[in-house]
Structure formats: structure tokens, C-alpha cells
Amino acid sequence: PVSALLISDSHVGSRMFMEKEIHHLIGWLKGRGSSGFEEKIAESVKYVVVAGDLVDGIGVYPGQEDELEVVSIYEQYEKTAEILSEIPEYVEIVIIPGNHDATRQALPQPAISQNYAKKLYELHNVKMLGNPCVVRLHGVEFLVFHGQSMEDLAFSVPGMAVDKPEKTQAYMLRARHLAPVYGQKTPIAPELEDMLVVESVPDVFHAGHVHVTGMDRYRGVLILNSGAWQTQTPYQVRKGLTPTPGRSPIVDLATLEVTWVGFG
User: How far apart are CA 196 and CA 180, in angstroms?
Assistant: First the structure.
């Protein structure tokens, strides 16, 4: 059995980053602190897919500096690389950027700049890709998108909500576009080709951004939002959003069955 662990929104550098819990997750992957059925799941993990916002960034929103543990973007990525280097080398890590990462904000986003994340590029088992992207793992096609457009959908489309990310992801699949609402908060670059069109039907649609876990199936597509590894922020308190951090889905690549692991 081969499986993929899906995570997003670790926000390394934030005071709310769940560093202890992420180390527990990595320790579990390495066979520490588990037994029986869960141990077999940990042994099956061959891939880790990260759907953006590795770091909290610098100057992303007003007053952010008061919530930072690490105030240098370079040091934030160095700490991220240090943490990811603890993952066993046989596990391949796929990373895309989010709106807090060091790349352009407009969609589609190129991979995180090597100028800022040199240590990540030096890890042999890390693949740095753009947002969105499509990757094929053991014949299973993953559409990976950070999810910046979810808030626009939540406030524009009846029946959508920020704390129900699986509904907004299903709407994107129905619209065959990852940012079907134009002219609101989501910046979109004027590219010659629209890279946000969902051209092929994926097997798994993985996103993050809203810090709330979600799961659904839409016309054969497994929809997953992997939540976050950051506890509730003052901004989320003001917005009335309750995150579900410290939980991640593991997808069996043979059956597409999902097991949730929690270290929150």
C-alpha cells in the first residue's frame, strides 16, 4: 500500500504555528509513538503534498509583526527546511505556494522563489511547483490549489460558506474554473492562457487556505481541504472563524480511501 499525506497552512514563523504538533506528526511518520493499524498507515506514506502557506510571511496584513515569532522571511524558510528535513528521505514532498509565501500574489503563482527558500531547494526529496498544479502520484491525478478564491465564492454564491470549503471546491469543479468569481479579492494575472481552467477531471482535489478541514466526493472526485497547522489567530477571532488545526488526511492511492490523523 502507498499513500499520500496532505497538509497546508503551517505558517512557520507565526506565534500560533503548532511546532510541537508538527514534530509529533513527523515523529509518527518515522514510526515513533504509534502502534497497530496506525503504524501501518504511517509506513505507507510515500508522498507529502503541501497546499501552500508554508510560512507566515512578512507584511502580509497590517500589524502582522506583532504576531510573528520569526521576523525574517529568510529565517522562516530556513526553519521550514529544517523541519521538513526530518521527514524520511524516501518520502517525496510536493510544495506549492499560497498567499503568505514569497512569490507573486496574482494567480497563477509561480513556485516559491529560490532566492528566499534556498534551503528548501537543497532538500533532495522536495519538488517546488506553482499554484495551481496537477501532479500524478502512482497513477492518481491530484489537482492542488491553495484556494485563494474560496472567500470570494463564500460571499458571492448562495449556499457557500468559508467554514465549508468542500462546498466551494465542488463549485469550482462544476464551474471548471478555480476562480470563477472575478473582480473581488482574488488577484488574477492577465496571462495569455487561463491556467485556472480545470481542463481534466482529477481524482483528488486538494486545497487549504481557510484553515478548516473538509471532505466530500463530487462525481467521482475526492475533495479534501487539509485545514492548517496554526491555531486561531486574532484575525480569525474578529471574523468569527473557528479553525480545525492539527488534522491531516492520508489518501490510500490504490483505493482513494481517507484516514484522518490528528495531533491537535
Answer: 9
